[in-house]
Amino acid sequence: MSNITMNINSDFETSKISFDDFREIILNDYRLAVESRLASLLGRKEVLTGKAKFGVFGDGKEIAQIALAKVFQPGDWRSGYYRDQTFAFALGISSIYHFFSQLYANPNLEADISSGGRQMNCHFSTQLLDKEGNWMNQTEQKNSASDISTTGGQMARVMGLGLASKLYKENRNLDYLTYFSRQGREVVFCTIGNASTSEGVFWETLNAAAVKQIPVVISVWDDGYGISVPNEVQTTKADISEVLKGFQRENDSNGIEIFKVRGWDYPALCEVYEQAARYAREEHVPCVVHVTELTQPQGHSTSGSHERYKSVERLEWEDVFDCNLKMRDWLLQSGIAQEEELKDLEKEAKEFVRQEQRRAWADYHKTLQVDLDEAIALLSAIGSPMVEVPLKTLQSLAEPSLKEVYGNVRRAIRDLRGVHSPEKDALMTWYAEKQGQNFNRYNDKLFSDTLDSPLKKDGIPAHYEQDVSIVDGREVLNACFDANFRRDERVVAFGEDVGKIGDVNQGFAGLQEQFGELRIFDTGIRESAIIGKGIGLALRGLRPVAEIQYLDYLIYAMPVLSDDLACLSYRTKGTQKAPVIIRTRGHRLEGIWHSGSPMTVLLGGLRGLHICVPRNMTQAAGMYNVLLRSDEPALVIECLNGYRLKEKMPTNVGDFMVPIGIAEQIRDGRDITVVSYGATLRVVQEAAIELEKLGISLEIIDAQCLQPFDRTEICRQSLEKTNRLLVVDEDMPGGASAFITQEILEKQNGYYLLDGQPRTLSAKPNRPPYGSDGDYFTKPSVDDVVELAYEMMSEYNENTFPRLF
Fold first, then answer.
1. pLDDT of the residue at 631
2. For a tag site, which of 245, 354, 611, 684 has the least CB within 10 Å?
3. Contact yes or no for 765/734 (Cβ under 8 A)
4. Is the distance from CB of 61 to CB of 327 less than 8 angstroms?
5. ∠ CA 287-291-295 to the nearest 5 degrees?
6. How many Å from the N-terminal Cα to the C-terminal Cα in the chain?
7. 103-108 long-range CB contacts below 8 Å, 24 or more apart?
8. What is the CA radius of gyration of the chain?
């Protein structure tokens, strides 16, 4: 371990620059540190005076982040967290103006360039896409993956961001992708708080990075606490670099390089980061830089005070070892600057920060003022006492907000119910127009919605020869993947057992031998890192298929899926995308730990991903053909018990397309519309045969996709004929079946077509016990479908269908 803890007066290479140039660089660094600290102090005041909602800042980490920024080159990547404001300022990916614009939640993307007002302050991001959703040249800019607040959440995607450099370096067939890499010389710089190293995702990612030897430099900002919890409670030996010594590479082994340096020692920090960046860039060796003796002068955030949990002695120590003060002392002691010079610099910095804060507030206020002035003018024109209260409320606002503006407009509309006048019509027209504008401000870009959206890909039928081959379903998938790997060099696939044995159900069988270990490879058992790997690779222009072996195991990666991938397009307002395909399998598994259908969790947590539930492998292949040509993330859940069922092999197996979000009627019927998907669809089909014997005809709809669901409203069209609805799936009660019912009854207005109560049939609330009998008594069976459908018809006509029980 490189343990640089001594004070280094000067280790700079000064032979190539003059002393004046050297001095100017150092003073500019100090100026930036001062400006960043002042922004933190002023930001807290803006929150406490009510002009901003909440604040979290990077004070106490300024000097280390300035040193880190010195080794960051165009094409490199940052995956950080909400303490990195000085780093962001030094890189030029944010500014004081943008910092305050984000603090005020300005919905204008030109003001808050990271999120358009959607993220709290100190959550940074760089634009990767143009207005049409096309990739910008990443090698010409300094790149930052969009920050998330999830503790340690920035770690998972590091694997993919760094692995992309490795693939671009070693796979010459990717050389044409000049927008994404200069043959793999890019480094990923990850930052994390010391307390967050207690999270499992930190260890998953670090282990994977060490195994794969990816070019990453991980900086651990160690200020001694995780909110109020000290290192002694957080970490063994209270020292993360001590704990990591087992990861230290030795001789020719894989592993990491570990550095330890004090966060107030500017020259030492510069030396350490130069060395760590060189290891990562030139040798692809991952490095951890443990930055100790940092402070956090304002505590964790604006919601609390660190005086509550820090001792007097600790607070006194922080006053002395504040990194900005230590750098100031060093400047004076080394003769680089004089006292008066520094005072002038600090005064100028204070004026500049205040000026930029005022400019950000003024621009934010202008955004609000337009809507406020228009609302006041329209309400004033009505001239009715009915709108007097909301009008006067708006006229008296000292610090307007859009919530106040539209809350009072909506109150006025309610008070004017039944009134008809041109002035009211003008108000209503304005409000309707503003609803669209406010949707764009606060709700758009859940998906990319570009020309490459999977929802804009038309279906292409599967073609079959006259003497069609009948094969196992897995062989259709295998041929589909083979064709796509041949078609697009960017496609890579990975997961547990995916490489050598071609996955547990043989979807990738033999493909590693054909396409090599750079494109199809095994991973360790680390679901969060697998998904993070997919996110990072997709951000850098590759087309990853990340496999999670079974659907149940997807739960282990939910924070990464939900907090990072699913909301990436939304939280960057469409300026970043990561078209990852997550492939997994489930349904009709047996046993408490392999129940196979946690759809409730996925539907609730993965808005922003397409969720595809194909009934067989041919349908799955058609969906993969669409998704691998599109630019949005998706989850494809294959039916585990369908891999060895026989299917016809399409002649265009790599080209036919099953459109996303389009349900399909697979059986014509007259009495009941039954909507299902996946494995329970076959249960419903078997039940339909039994019900025909009882004089009941089922019309069966295969949902095929849950997000989005039935875009062409086939379910509604079916209800126009049958007037009865039964939804069948194997999720828990009130889960996916309730979701589907709500989609049909509310969004498709199917409620008005019903002649009876809509019914759902799902699994029991307990998990299924092991064995076929356990499956029979806990998940929908053919008998369950038959009896419930019969009961629905009995309620309609008991004479024709006398009760069974």
1. 97
2. 245
3. no
4. no
5. 155
6. 75
7. 103/43, 103/46, 103/47, 103/52, 103/55, 103/360, 104/46, 104/51, 104/52, 104/360, 104/361, 104/364, 105/52, 105/53, 105/364, 106/360, 106/363, 106/364, 106/367, 107/367, 107/441, 107/442, 108/363, 108/367
8. 30
Closest listed residue to residue 444, CA positions, set 780, 115, 55, 700: 115
Which pLDDT tens digit goes with each residue over 585-644?
A: 987 767 787 766 889 999 999 999 999 999 999 999 999 999 999 999 999 999 988 999
Question: Which residues make up the CATH 3.40.50.920 domain(s) of the chain?
Answer: 664-796
Tell me the mean pLDDT in the region 738-767. Answer: 96
Pairwise CA distance, residues 166 & 540, whole Å = 12
Token pair in block for residue 621: 């292949």
Beta-strand pair 634-639/581-586: parallel
Q: Is 736 exposed, middle or buried (0-12, 13-18, 19+ CB in 10 A)?
A: buried
> How far is Cα 174 from Cα 410, in angstroms, rounded to an integer?
55
CA distance 9 to 70: 18
Over the stretch 83-96, which tens digit does the pLDDT of each residue have? Answer: 999 999 999 999 99
Q: Is 548 helix (H, G, I), strand (E, B) or coil?
A: coil
Q: Which CATH superfamily is domain 454-648 in?
A: Thiamin diphosphate (ThDP)-binding fold, Pyr/PP domains (3.40.50.970)
Spatial contact of 587 and 505, defined as CB atoms under 8 Å apart: no
Where residue 217 falls (left for φ over 0; alpha for ψ -120 to 50; beta otherwise) is beta
* Region 433-449 average pLDDT: 95
Distance CA 143, CA 135 (A): 12
Model confidence at 15: pLDDT above 80: no
Whether omega for the bond prior to residue 708 falls within 30 degrees of 0, making it cis, is: yes
Structure tokens at 67: 């040193």
Instruction: Give dist(CA 100, CA 111) in Å, integer.
Output: 9
Q: Give catalytic residue positions.
A: 527, 594
pLDDT per residue as tens digits for the range 204-251: 999 999 999 999 999 999 999 999 999 999 999 999 999 999 999 998
**What is the DSSP track for 478-543?**
HHHHHHHHHH-TTEEEEETT-SSS-STT-TTTTHHHHH-TTTEEE--S-HHHHHHHHHHHHHTT-E
Per DSSP, 386 falls in state G
Residues of the chain within CATH 3.40.50.970 domain(s) are: 19-337, 454-648
Residue 756 phi/psi, 5-degree rounding, is -155, 175
The strand ranges marked E within 148-283 are: 188-193, 216-221, 225-226, 229-230, 257-262
CATH number 1.10.10.10 given to 664-796: no
How many Cβ atoms sit within 10 Å of the Cβ of residue 414?
10
Q: Quick one: CA torsion of 277, 283, 284, 285, rounded to 10 degrees?
A: -70
444: how many CB neighbours lie within 10 A of its CB? 15
Kindly state the percentage of the chain with pLDDT values over 70: 98
Q: Hey, which CATH number is domain 19-337, 3.40.50.970, 3.40.50.150, 3.30.70.360, 3.90.1150.10?
A: 3.40.50.970
Going by the DSSP 8-state scheme, the letter that residue 200 receives in this structure is H
pTM of the model: 0.95
Q: Outline where 264-311 has alpha helix (H).
A: 266-283
Q: What is the dihedral of CA 668, 674, 678, 679, to 10 degrees?
A: -100
